[in-house]
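Hi U.,

Before I forget, here's the chain from the pilot set. I'm dumping it here mostly so it's searchable later in email.
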Amino acid sequence: MNITEFLEEYQIKYWETGSHHHVCKGWIGVDCPQCSPNSNKVRLGINLAGKYASCWVCGYISLPNILMEMTKQSYKTIKEKLGVLIGYSDHTL
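Structure:
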């Protein structure tokens, strides 16, 4: 499962490159659940290559943590669905 399939499964609206002026190549944009939930301001970017997220207002945010916050799912569930896509390694637990 990739990150866009994951967001679609949880019905989280996202923007791809070119669909919003805040979304650059190699990123997808979402509303930040911390500073602008459901606002369509697209302040949070998820870097597809770097396995991290960054918000224009909040700064760097752990990708697993932000996905848990957006979906209300446990780390275990996120890890099972996305594994290495979120930077998971057996050595990090």
